[in-house]
Fold each of these.
Amino acid sequence: MNRHDPSRVIRAARGSQITAKSWQTEAALRMLMNNLDAEVAEHPQDLVVYGGIGRAARNWQSYDKIVEVLTRLNDDETLLVQSGKPVGVFQTHANAPRVLIANSNLVPHWANWEHFNELDKQGLMMYGQMTAGSWIYIGSQGIVQGTYETFVSIAKAHFNGDAKGKWVLTGGLGGMGGAQPLAATMAGFSMLAVEVDESRIDFRLKSAYLDKKATSLADALQLLEHAKHTGKPVSVGLLGNAADIFSQLLEQNVIPDVVTDQTSAHDPLNGYLPQGWSMEQAAQRRLEDEKAVVTAAKQSMAVQVKAMLGLQQRGAATVDYGNNIRQMAFEVGVENAFDFPGFVPAYIRPLFCQGIGPFRWAVLSGDPEDIYKTDAKVKELIPDNAHLHNWLDMAKERIQFQGLPARICWVGLGERQKLGLAFNEMVRSGELSAPIVIGRDHLDSGSVASPNRETESMLDGSDAVSDWPLLNALLNTASGATWVSLHHGGGVGMGFSQHSGMVIVCDGTEDAAQRIARVLHNDPATGVMRHADAGYELAIECARKHKLDLPMLA
Amino acid sequence: MNRHDPSRVIRAARGSQITAKSWQTEAALRMLMNNLDAEVAEHPQDLVVYGGIGRAARNWQSYDKIVEVLTRLNDDETLLVQSGKPVGVFQTHANAPRVLIANSNLVPHWANWEHFNELDKQGLMMYGQMTAGSWIYIGSQGIVQGTYETFVSIAKAHFNGDAKGKWVLTGGLGGMGGAQPLAATMAGFSMLAVEVDESRIDFRLKSAYLDKKATSLADALQLLEHAKHTGKPVSVGLLGNAADIFSQLLEQNVIPDVVTDQTSAHDPLNGYLPQGWSMEQAAQRRLEDEKAVVTAAKQSMAVQVKAMLGLQQRGAATVDYGNNIRQMAFEVGVENAFDFPGFVPAYIRPLFCQGIGPFRWAVLSGDPEDIYKTDAKVKELIPDNAHLHNWLDMAKERIQFQGLPARICWVGLGERQKLGLAFNEMVRSGELSAPIVIGRDHLDSGSVASPNRETESMLDGSDAVSDWPLLNALLNTASGATWVSLHHGGGVGMGFSQHSGMVIVCDGTEDAAQRIARVLHNDPATGVMRHADAGYELAIECARKHKLDLPMLA
Ligand SMILES: NC(=O)c1ccc[n+]([C@@H]2O[C@H](COP(=O)([O-])OP(=O)(O)OC[C@H]3O[C@@H](n4cnc5c(N)ncnc54)[C@H](O)[C@@H]3O)[C@@H](O)[C@H]2O)c1
Ligand SMILES: NC(=O)c1ccc[n+]([C@@H]2O[C@H](COP(=O)([O-])OP(=O)(O)OC[C@H]3O[C@@H](n4cnc5c(N)ncnc54)[C@H](O)[C@@H]3O)[C@@H](O)[C@H]2O)c1
């Protein structure tokens, strides 16, 4: 099995010439490649896109074969991908998906990292995270708005909507975590981000997601203090271990206004550096003694979580940002680890009740102008949402594109369908220079069961019921999404989540318009349905407003 | 929540008049009702079809609403069913399934009976078993051929293909287990079946699946002895606890030729009566102290498994028949519980490698003549399979229909599609008096991951990888099956399996023919693909023969 190939430089084709047989398959091809663009992926030569070891394909043989198949696939055929490996091509029909993907799924009794890692090493599996293995990751920008929305909600909940002079402490500047400093300053917060890998800090400086690199904790605190005086928020990266620095701040009684974390705690073997270890040491120990690494990582996480709990007690608004660090600490004895809430029940659930989630699109032309035109279209079609307009303005100004130009916008049921149809029309009319794809994160309203994150503390206690994301995937398949995926273990790691993804191509045809109308309605509608079924009034209202046909609610 | 309603008497409509808007939805309606026909279901008034607490709908409110929705559903709409509850109706298209079902699915970390039972009690879930919640159970006959094929394989493997004078010891005469005595005598074996519920014994006597009821163990052994002398196999039911009787036989050094079990061991709370308990006592204790029941049941299972191991050591061919009894015993300390094999790796896997599995169909007319005509068609189209012809003759002669007349036939890739298209043509031409449905068990070649049963001891160690059944469900949805289901915990219980089902309607139209051609090819083809991917030569050969497009094998 060939997983590391330093000679590989992947970049999606641009423009309106295609090598696949249609835009449906060309879109899959470009988005797969875009996931592995050096501007986009964390470790493209290992096929790692983001989120610990979240991959786009199982190995390079599989990658090459997927490319080959997508290039020859007809528009009434469907490719099956099993944990990043192309396993079969079948006759379907024009309104069926072109690719169906199942990544990292394990029968529950065996659904843990140990068993996964064994299979992974034997070449039998791959970790798909959420959008890595389902080919709709669009770089750190994909997470910027979600993080920004969360920080705005935190400011509303704790600081009367005004983040001025406040600062956030966090850990991790990886694929997703790297969006934190930009999202924080956009929302008016300063930020101190602790990261063990200096190259990650430098990468975020280069893309202007991060403002400064501190030379020491004292230096960092001074930069924050300065920002407080000038009133201009600053984001500061600090090389160090989060478990160490979080504890030092507690000891020194320096209390941040907000505390969170985005190390890859969900994957204790690969995602979290134990205290006192160097990166090289960790790399070596991973080969020698996996159990020891996992134990050491969890123990350091326990230290960090204890510091987070301590800071919370002294007044910091502390929140788990969806990396399962509470569970890991809990497993090694931190009994009150769940005393600070997850971000979804705390800040995001009301959005999910209305089918609002991380809607995103990418322009296959590669031309930034195409994105700016869609930005303008969004403003035109959703004229009275100042918050959204503000977001679009900031995004245009401050977010550098990585790979194919893309945009993310949290919009809900009704709006998604409207935007999708308008974009398709813009492709048809030639206003856009090539087709575009529309997708979303698996972290969305109707597409995930994850009791420590997206479905934490559901009103009716149905946190762990995963019928919902499975139905979401089946319905997106039945509605004609271009590719559909079913994953396990994204965000919070093996055993803790099941979720589904979908992408749909706007190629400007009338057939596509029909599929778009169905998919972009049905997909968020399943989220409203799921939350209405759990008893959320906001979701029940939304279902009524949109005349959803929910038999047991009628 | 209303789960018990003694006033309910459900029976599917017969004939060619329909109350739904088309045969697609009428078929779902009739098959749902047929699952709850008193001739078919174990406890229809509790909505329990078979396999412990395997239900067709969550409660009577849900049942009524499903019936209502199916009656009004259009042929470009799709109903979503979440653990037996109808939760949404969505716009799809003519080639999409009419019903999409997800039953009993739980995020792995919470995927155990304790958590399930809690949710179940709160009315948030339902156990779907395999064909109970997916509306294609056809009574004990559904399992007769599978069991018959297994016994024939056992005779081949251990007794030179001749079962004469040999006998099988087993436990359980429930929905599935009740097929054992008939399958055994069909295969030439005598059988002793131990069952704690006398009504189950009487039920099997009435349907002629079982020949005799013994008054004591001594009486039973005498009946078996007599059969040995006359050379005519006999099946004997004995009221008793399997843990007791199996142990007594070992003590008395009476060694059966074959030993297995089909109590509902997969569900220690509801499916297995502990030693020394009466049925009433168990029912009471289940309400008072679930943990105590589970513990007592597992301890009795340990006793039974130890007896099975002892009998194996003294020469009996001992096999786990897919109820997870080894796992349960293992969990309470029987370390060598897995010393006897499961029936799939031992006898069934070669069939799965060729996409051969429990293909079945039911005639919606209700007319037995329609089945006999299809029987004849099978013989005509598969002329050179004497074993299959023999099975069809015996089935016609010895299997009483329960509910809508149905037939099961283990056939493989190629044959399934051929039969489906022929049946559709027979509907079109009027040779059959109404449409028919074609489906299968979830226990099939490409539709299940179940490491203690269907995917035990896979060649490459991929037993627990559940990407495969998920892909199977997605592909059947994309191919246009009439209904598709995704379940968890069937056969072996919560945490131990994931599997998918499909049913397709032959209404005689050309559109249906196209869907049938796709679905009945693709569905078994995913099984061949899965086994070829695992390295089975027989599957690789089969894939080549049928020109499957498996990119990494080419
Ligand atoms: N809330 C959300 O919306 C959301 C979305 C996606 C992912 N996530 C989760 O966030 C986490 C981070 O995702 P990612 O894509 O950034 O992962 P990543 O693996 O790309 O980045 C993790 C970073 O943490 C750093 N790190 C590891 N141990 C550390 C330590 N002890 N101290 C300081 N830094 C340390 C690593 O060097 C790396 O840069 C994951 O668990 C992921 O599942 C959350
Ligand atoms: N191998 C296969 O193909 C296959 C197929 C389907 C089901 N199964 C499994 O077989 C098992 C039985 O299925 P079913 O539908 O017959 O279930 P069921 O619940 O209808 O029947 C189980 C029977 O076992 C009896 N029983 C319980 N405890 C007993 C004891 N201690 N001694 C003797 N009898 C006892 C019950 O009274 C009941 O009649 C299940 O675990 C099911 O998952 C196997």
Amino acid sequence: MATKKLASWALALQFSNLTQPVTDMAVKSIYNWAGCAIGGYALPPAGIALEALSPLLPQHSGNCSILGSDALVDVQTAALVNGIASHVDDYDDTHADTPVHPSGPVASALLAMAELRSPVSGPDFITAFVAGVEAECKLGVAVYPEHYDIGWHITSTTGSIGAAVAVGKLLGLDLEQLQHAIGIASVQVIGMRDSFGTDTKPFHVGRAAQSGIQAAVLAQNGYGSMLEGLEGEYGWAHVVSTRQNVTKELSTLGSIWEITKNTFKPFPCDRIIHAAIDGWIQIHDQAVKKGLRIADIKNATARVNPIVLSLTDNHDPKTGLDAKFSVYHAGAVALIYGEATPAQFTDEVVKDSAVISLRDKVSVTAAKEVSEHEAFVAVEFANGTKLEIHVEHALGSVEKPLSAEQLKEKFLEQVSAQIGDKQAAAAFSAFSQIANMTDVGKIARKFKQHPRLYKELNSSP
Amino acid sequence: MATKKLASWALALQFSNLTQPVTDMAVKSIYNWAGCAIGGYALPPAGIALEALSPLLPQHSGNCSILGSDALVDVQTAALVNGIASHVDDYDDTHADTPVHPSGPVASALLAMAELRSPVSGPDFITAFVAGVEAECKLGVAVYPEHYDIGWHITSTTGSIGAAVAVGKLLGLDLEQLQHAIGIASVQVIGMRDSFGTDTKPFHVGRAAQSGIQAAVLAQNGYGSMLEGLEGEYGWAHVVSTRQNVTKELSTLGSIWEITKNTFKPFPCDRIIHAAIDGWIQIHDQAVKKGLRIADIKNATARVNPIVLSLTDNHDPKTGLDAKFSVYHAGAVALIYGEATPAQFTDEVVKDSAVISLRDKVSVTAAKEVSEHEAFVAVEFANGTKLEIHVEHALGSVEKPLSAEQLKEKFLEQVSAQIGDKQAAAAFSAFSQIANMTDVGKIARKFKQHPRLYKELNSSP
């Protein structure tokens, strides 16, 4: 009954059922997603995808915005490209109990659909968003960590189902239709860990959004599937994981809100290295105060959870995307720049000789007793000075979340780089006030987006 | 090196490398696919998909044909809908060493792309088709049966990669681009066995075709992926199966041609019940000769391989699609009608009281020593007469293939029902002569397709 339970719960959900912490977190999640999407459009993958797929359509125009550009395209292309852009910087959000980045697949699908099926009110948009996020995260908990350990990218493998639930709710599917939509989405299992560090990682998110839209629209029009796509003997949960308790997890829908456990990344890279970065930035700041020169660093170390090396043991990253999965690159830029923003994860910085030199002095050891959000970092200088920091909870974790002010700063920094300060402020105002809108589909008209394509932003496309 | 090996082999493949048995089988595979697609358009799923997705595009027209209708759409929609139609009847082809139905994903992607990128010559089309089919089937062998036993629909899970290889070759990708295309396709694992008997089974095939096109076009435009998508630690082969030997299987590319092991279905249903159907039809014919009445059947039995009950132990099918996975329905219609064509797998026949009554008299036992293409069937009549048949190799198996004449008949029967006898003959002429065409993209203009939508063909959409 898991599929039916999810579908019936999602359809019954009303904006008035949402508690204040739920709606607050939903709004933050949505504007954090929008900031990532607008900022992420500056990187190659989103623009390449848009330019590649546009000629496949007979006449390429539509109602749906590509955030960060002024392109208007069809709903499926918009969902794909915004999904790619929102995840390319690895700067989005993370569910605390799993590595699911929940907003990307759901918001990318929903915004495009809200533009096509205007008017969709803010409360309806938020309610559908919450339904989709709960679906993704409950499914994530039901199969984590076994599913992730096999090699699946859990964000997109749960994301196509979350997007189908959200869009299905927005379109007003009936119960059986939504079960069919979940079934159609569930047979499209998108995303593997091997592609981390490449353009294909953010593709997972965009494709999950696209698949969710397609599944919901097909089901709305009478396309059939199995009614028990999640729990069937040869259905989603059994096929994608060696362990699952989908039925149990979905029984907590509406009583335990997964979205309240959403967290936001302070650094645009794999969240597993955030604790170490946090510590190394603190050491940078101490060194500056003490008049120590970064060039005089003899060695830098971190003691971290073993998963850090499993995911980011990359001594020689080749590109900015690759460097998002290199704990050594992260250490070098945190110590040199005293920050880790998108500017520290460009192809140029990856090739910078000072960064490469310091990267080679970073060493990392793993210890099971260190938690995933914890790090012990130390730096030794040529004069023998040793600075040490214990980060118990990484900045951005549930225990030490970004404040609303920090989230706003993060948004403005990303978005200003793409569309300028004034328009960034207008965009923040629009997305952070989404609950009050009567027509979310018009949100992109509240600010002007420059028609800069990725080719203008990147010398080598 | 598996991904690189596949990509470099596919790019180097020339029409002149293909032996006569390979090209002969390729042409048969293509026209058998086209017949299934044109005939299959009469069933609801293809038409529903077309009607559902058309309004998502700003201006719905294009260069690419929906076979069986006169609709022209964009390349991705055409690949999806033709893929659905070609598999909906479960009447297509099957690789003898795996349950892969190879033509659907590859031909559906290629024909749409050949129409968009006209002119593509017959030899180029066939060469790309063979490259895609070899990719699918080698990958299938490398993970079968473990991958299938988990619950994956091996046709589409290998199909998106096969389609990417075929389209990538057609578009002239370079080696790294084709490796990237394989990577992008490999992270989209489409199709689970739980959806057998529903509209979502043929959706798998269409979506695989669509994903292959998208992957190839993205890679052509510079979208990146991992270069070792198939063999990487967290890549396709390891993630989707508990056993794999992709590297070994791909080492036989060009020396062992999988396409020569392709077989064609004589009956539009799961191939695992073809041996039993073959036997029951023979009993029907004997009974007619002996003057025995089908209404006097006391019981009908079959002793078959255990996989038959694993896939088709469905005593009470509800729809025509569902009945394609019911050995009991198959027995009833084979005995009553003396044939098993699409006309025996309609929703109406499933609800026919004589069929239901005889279905309840069919019983099946499983025995490991009976091969997958073998069956011992028997029927007992009210007067005590017992007729027995041992089918050692089912009609349509490698050992007892359909003749060229039977394949032509199968094509004409399916296609005439949709576009009439005269146009069916023209369509057969076009597809069976595809090797001589200078522009395969114009093949659909060689015959006139009626603009009948599924709603006109089906009373209840």
